[in-house]
Amino acid sequence: xxxxxxxxxxxxxxxxxxxxxxxxxxxxxxxxxxxxxxxxxxxxxxxxxxxxxxxxxxxxxxxxxxxxxxxxxxxxxxxxxxxxxxxxxxxxxxxxxxxxxxxxxxxxxxxxxxxxxxxxxxxxxxxxxxxxxxxxxxxxxxxxxxxxxxxxxxxxxxxxxxxxxxxxxxxxxxxxxxxxxxxxxxxxxxxxxxxxxxxxxxxxxxxxxxxxxxxxxxxxxxxxxxxxxxxxxxxxxxxxxxxxxxxxxxxxxxxxxxxxxxxxxxxxxxxxxxxxxxxxxxxxxxxxxxxxxxxxxxxxxxxxxxxxxxxxxxxxxxxxxxxxxxxxxxxxxxxxxxxxxxxxxxxxxxxxxxxxxxxxxxxxxxxxxxxxxxxxxxxxxxxxx
Amino acid sequence: xxxxxxxxxxxxxxxxxxxxxxxxxxxxxxxxxxxxxxxxxxxxxxxxxxxxxxxxxxxxxxxxxxxxxxxxxxxxxxxxxxxxxxxxxxxxxxxxxxxxxxxxxxxxxxxxxxxxxxxxxxxxxxxxxxxxxxxxxxxxxxxxxxxxxxxxxxxxxxxxxxxxxxxxxxxxxxxxxxxxxxxxxxxxxxxxxxxxxxxxxxxxxxxxxxxxxxxx
Lengths: 385, 216
Description:
The structure holds 2 protein chains of 2 kinds.
Chain A: H1 15-18, H2 21-48, H3 66-75, H4 96-108, H5 112-137, H6 142-154, H7 167-182, H8 186-197, H9 206-218, H10 221-224, H11 234-238, H12 241-254, H13 259-268, H14 275-283, H15 287-303, H16 305-308, H17 312-327, H18 334-338, H19 342-352, H20 356-378
Chain B: H1 8-34, H2 39-53, E1 70-73, E2 89-96, E3 105-112, E4 120-127, E5 130-138, E6 145-149, E7 160-167, E8 183-190
Antiparallel strand pairs in B: 1-8, 2-7, 3-6, 3-8, 4-5, 4-7
């Protein structure tokens, strides 16, 4: 399937004319519907599978790492480690999310948890809008765009986009950076990429996409003559800025610029390894380990669809994130770490468009797994960590 | 409408700027790499040392490992961080029982950390006022093993008075660093093969603490 020329809707009209109100309604509808259904599943889980106590709804958005993020937003970073996991400190968590939570809390006067949930949900909503426009920018139809939005809303474990996790902020910045790079808004792309690398460690891998995109757009010779397209390299140089600021802060506070790596190493047992070997060992591990690994492998297989669409830069980026994720010796959350690769949802949407059977099948599988994982999340089970 | 492309000159200037920024990144990364220590390990070690030494006050607290062949001096560091400033120079006396120093040769070993922003400290040792050793400890070489020869004992000075003085280059307090030890262990081992016990009672008026020590 050859690439389609960029959609002219996005180029010549004023921004008010560019708003597709049907699309806005569709995005909002999918967002609200998917969130409401997941909250309902959470409440029913508490009522029937838990101890019968239904906690306040907002508590559904706070599991696992949520406590760390709220703690950082409340008290800042400390070197105090967790009593249950020696070496596990707040420095394992990147600063962008807690910083934004704190900012919103101070502006609105809301509590930290409420502020965090407002933030992540707004970020997710904005992500859906960017995703929609990204699909159009690639030259695909609005049908593909709204399908991609739907897939992201109902993706297994997609509830984390509305929880106090970094996924929604990360995904917003990633879609923004990639979108603006494709539109040659290099400063905007660079700023989004810099913030991205302050959100999660793998944010700096945006560089892979930017380089691949540069080669795809300007050819291999552009690498040998970078001054011909110097402005295209601006996002690449801005991308590590967030990471460097974070390193500088860590060094200033602890004397260890790589405090994040030290903490996840000691506290969570993260060690690097050869990705293929890790995959093999993870497939021999616990049920959770097998589930996480198979999930990420399925997503990887789906990412191959990007090649059929000639979206090589997006594929290379996804591949880099997959390899990085598999290189970690601990299989935790592989699904969560790789579901932020939104180009996969675009490729999937492009391939199921106009095929009702396939569409129903994919959404059915997604909805079932998402519901199951929401139950696990509500009950605080490891599978949904 | 797309903006017109910058001129070649502007693009070249931009390229040079980007290259400079790239090199700045590399320089910062290398510097951070060379000046970082694993903070979790460092804190663990410091906590373990503090627990072992039972340090409870900013004062120097000498203690000897009980029942060991080694004489261990803990607390050679700056514990004054909690008070808001670190001294540049810290030292203390230890009175070595005559039986311990009978061979007049001591094997010395340092152990501990150099926490940021320290890069090096100097440790001096004198015995009864006579300089017998000086060591420059760096981050890369903190576990120095050495032997020192004690001077002949004077009849009016019994036992040997050893004075360790540690000097650091500045009084800068490392922001955010928890109060801890710089050097938390100095181990002395007598070269004597005698097994003796010693006069454990501190002499009146002397500030050092003397704890029973057995020597192999």
